[in-house]
Amino acid sequence: MGKSSKAGQTSEILKGWKAIGSYLGIGTAAAQRWAKNGMPVRREGRFTVAETDEIRRWLAREAHMAAPAFVAPAGEEIAAALKQSLAAVKRQKR
Fold it and tell me: Of 92, 50, 52, 51, whose CA–CA distance to 72 is shortest?
């Protein structure tokens, strides 16, 4: 299910609004609003799904960033997440 990404994270399929919102640290209603504003989601049967790589690229475009945005998983130490994100940006500049 996971495929490697350039930012060092593994792409996952998020199944359902609750999973999408949880990944982003927002509620389901906010996730649905973001999707109406262009966040990449698609329907698979009765579920709405999203790929984490696509969401990170969309967040980067929305924030006018050169590299995909890094989304720190819940409970992950923020310092480690920041170091990983900065390393990805440095690799992009080379």
Answer: 52
For the full predicted model, state whether its pTM sits above 0.85: no
CB-based contacts of 14, cutoff 8 Å, min separation 6: 20, 23, 49, 50, 51, 52, 55
Q: CA 48, CA 77: separation in Å to the nearest integer?
A: 29
- Mean pLDDT, to the nearest integer, of 12-28? 94
Q: Which residue, chain included where needed, has tokens 């399929």?
A: 13
Cβ-based neighbour number of residue 9 at 10 Å: 21
Give pLDDT tens digits for 64-77: 776 666 676 666 66
Instruction: Tell whether the torsion through CA atoms of 39, 42, 48 and 49 is positive or negative.
Output: negative
Buried b vs exposed e over 64-75: b needs ≥16 C-beta within 10 Å? eeebbbbbeeee
Task: List the one residue out of 9, 31, 33, 10 whose CA is nearest residue 20.
Answer: 31
